[in-house]
C-alpha cells in the first residue's frame, strides 16, 4: 500500500479511520514522501487492471521516486487485476525468483 487514501474505503477506514479524522496518520503512513529514503533495490509489481490497489498507487510512487532521484524496479502485468493467473502467474514467480537471485543474495 503506497497511500491509504487511495485504498478501498472498507479496509482503509477500518484500520485508519477517515482521512479527515486521521490526517496525520494518513500522511505518516504514505510512502510517497518516503521514496527518497530508498537506499537499495525495490521491486514493484502491479496488475494494470487491479481494482483493489489501483494503478495510481504505484504510478504516484514512481513519480515521487523520479522527483527524489531514486530508481525502483517496476513491472506491470497488462490485463491483470490484483492476482496474476494462468501462465502469467508462472512468469510472476519466475520474475520474483530471478530478482531475488540477482539482487538479494
From TrEMBL:
Its EC number is 3.4.14.12. One of its GO terms (biological process) is proteolysis. Signal peptide: none annotated. Gene3D superfamilies: alpha/beta hydrolase. The keyword Hydrolase applies. One of its GO terms (molecular function) is dipeptidyl-peptidase activity. Keywords: Hydrolase. Pfam families: Peptidase_S9 (PF00326). Residues 2-101 form the Peptidase S9 prolyl oligopeptidase catalytic domain. InterPro entries: AB_hydrolase_fold, Peptidase_S9_cat, Serine_Prot_S9B/DPPIV. It is an enzyme of class 3 (hydrolase). This is Prolyl tripeptidyl peptidase. It comes from bioreactor metagenome. The lineage of its organism: unclassified sequences, metagenomes, ecological metagenomes.
